[in-house]
Design a protein that fits this description.
Number of strands: 25
Shape: globular
Distance between the termini: 21 Å
Helix content: 25-40%
Strand content: 15-25%
Largest sheet: 9 strands, mixed
Structural class: alpha+beta
Radius of gyration: 23 Å
Number of helices: 16
Length: about 575
């Protein structure tokens, strides 16, 4: 695959030419930028609103802003930066989609050829043992919902945003928060491209670009790198609901299955096997159109056993008789993985910072018992857009976003479901019992709020408390090795660039992780980015295959000593999802 340098400085000046890259989009003209200048050797452009991330939250915010401008007969310049090579390339979700927010944002979406076409036709809930699937009453109510590909939906939303005048620029990785002299955030900068592994500038080097914004909205998705810095630096967790965020890792494949096995709109969720009784998680099977089946496993990242491998648990899950029968004779179309927020109500940060706000999964609005977060992400983007418009046009404050969020149906949803996830801190059976009591008897109105347990990285036990797990070898028919899966993710990074996965202390893997935790990074990563290899003396050393990275952020979350820092690579690198 060819690589191309996509830098705004090149695009604006029109003086450089580069070979075409996979999924390459037209070079941006930065047409709505109100001003251009050079700052510290970087070209800088000014917009009214800069949005980082072209997912459901970022695009909903952009669309809502332009709708408000049209209604008020005014205009605000809005740009959206996306680190994926194209919009949707880094978007992965189940996804059973609740259209509530889309109904509010684009009421006539059904007439606008939105890729939301497969209504839920059946809703099943299974408890799995090793060889049996027991049907339980479904706790989900998916009537009126749709089985979709979220990566396809955001591409459609991007086209709607551009029709309204939003400038959407894929292939640009925002790596730096910009501040003014009063320490107000006033935009972001993209990373330099064309830097070699050794830090020298290659012949294709181009400086990053500053995108200055009167308001900056961060919509990077779960565990966004800039969002996490803002949350920490401005103590937004402490001024919000106060508790740390908890996470899970979702691993997903999209299959094309045999016609006779395909039931469009059929939704199945499972709990139980192959996970142990102390590990929270479950699986999903969603029948889309065109004989496609989305199948995945979600594993909470507060699991204790350092020998557990979420990737191998997923491959094992597909060997269950009830699952294997469905997949046999089919073909895998795509593979991917992504972390998701599970902290819910207790973990919502104050989303407003001086000069902007955090929206969508960067803040963490996933409704865990519903297993849905796209609708809440979109709604949060719309609320932030309304506050942004009033701040820029009417002179109010971005605090309006925080105030309106607390009055919205997002707040109500997350409050009513607040005890579901922490109930499972006590184990699978107590968690099922307590969540059932709250759901069916108290309807989310228990007179107390449970707290989360340890942060995910602290939950990992020492290796001497567990035995290694012997996973079956992949059969190449329904279960696969990691290289085969990575090929199906279309993951690609420029080889000759500085590593975007950085060790704060390079001695910790060999001095702590390997002897105490048996090298868990070699197992929790679903792309085998981390592996221990023997050096010339026979000593085990950590080797990082950064080019394999799926941008799932599991390493940034689960490393026992929080020693791995995930940063953005060159724009356009990473997975290339099309149907996820």
């Amino acid at each position: 695959m060819h690589r191309v340098l996509r830098a705004a400085a090149v695009a604006a000046s029109g003086i450089a030419k580069a070979p075409a890259r996979r999924h390459s989009a037209p070079m941006p003209s930065w047409g709505a930028a109100t001003a251009r200048w050079f700052s510290a050797g970087r070209e800088a452009m000014s917009y009214d609103v800069v949005i980082v991330g072209a997912g459901p939250a970022g695009l909903a915010a952009a669309i809502r802003l332009k709708q408000l401008c049209r209604a008020a007969d005014t205009d605000l310049s809005v740009c959206v930066l996306e680190k994926g090579a194209e919009v949707g390339a880094h978007v992965l979700s189940g996804n059973v989609f609740e259209p509530r927010a889309l109904d509010e944002l684009i009421p006539n979406w059904r007439q606008e050829d939105a890729p939301v076409r497969v209504p839920v036709s059946s809703d099943k809930f299974w408890m799995l043992t090793k060889n049996k699937a027991w049907t339980l009453p479904s706790p989900f109510d998916n009537r009126g919902n749709y089985v979709i590909s979220l990566s396809q939906l955001v591409r459609w939303m991007s086209s709607k945003a551009e029709e309204l005048g939003v400038e959407v620029y894929p292939g640009f990785a925002a790596s730096e928060i910009l501040y003014d002299e009063n320490q107000m955030v006033n935009g972001v900068a993209t990373n330099d491209v064309g830097i070699a592994k050794d830090g020298t500038k290659r012949e294709i080097f181009q400086s990053g670009v500053e995108l200055r914004g009167r308001i900056t909205l961060l919509a990077e998705g779960c565990r966004g790198s800039l969002s996490e810095k803002i949350i920490t630096n401005h103590k937004l967790r402490e001024t919000g609901q106060g508790q740390h965020q908890t996470y899970a890792l979702g691993i997903k494949e999209v299959w094309e299955i045999e016609e006779g096995k395909h039931k469009p709109g059929c939704v199945v969720h499972t709990v139980g096997w192959p996970l142990d009784m102390k590990t929270y998680g479950g699986s999903f099977l969603y029948h889309l159109d065109d004989r496609q089946l989305a199948i995945g496993l979600v594993v909470a990242l507060n699991y204790r056993n350092p020998f557990l491998s979420p990737y191998d648990e997923f491959q094992k899950f597909k060997q269950h008789p009830a699952i294997r029968t469905l997949l046999e004779g089919g073909t895998v179309l795509q593979y991917g993985a992504r972390t998701l927020n599970e902290g819910g109500f207790q973990s919502i940060p104050n989303p407003v910072f001086p000069g902007g706000a955090i929206i969508g999964c960067s803040a963490g609005f996933l409704n865990v018992p519903k297993i849905k977060g796209s609708h809440t992400a979109m709604k949060s983007g719309m609320l932030a857009a309304e506050a942004t418009f009033q701040t820029l046009v009417e002179g109010t404050s971005m605090d309006l976003y925080w105030e309106n969020l607390k009055k919205s149906w997002i707040w109500e949803e997350l409050y009513r479901s607040r005890n579901y996830r922490p109930a499972f801190e006590y184990g699978f059976v107590p968690g099922m019992a307590l969540s059932a009591v709250e759901h069916y008897i108290f309807n989310g109105k228990l007179p107390f709020t449970l707290k989360h347990g340890k942060p995910d990285h602290e939950a990992t036990d020492m290796a001497n408390l567990h035995s290694p797990i012997q996973y079956p070898k992949p059969d190449g028919q329904v279960s696969f090795d990691v290289p085969s899966s990575l090929y199906r993710s279309n993951t690609n990074h420029e080889h000759n660039q500085p590593p975007h996965l950085r060790l704060k202390d390079p001695t910790i893997p060999e001095s702590v992780n390997l002897p105490q935790y048996a090298g868990p990074e070699s197992r929790y990563c679903p792309a085998r980015v981390y592996e221990y290899v023997s050096d010339e003396n026979g000593d085990q050393k950590l080797h990082i295959n950064a080019q394999n990275c799926l941008h799932c952020k599991a390493c940034d979350i689960k490393d026992p000593k929080q020693n791995i820092e995930w940063t953005v690579p060159e724009g356009g690198g990473g997975p290339g999802y099309t149907v996820m």
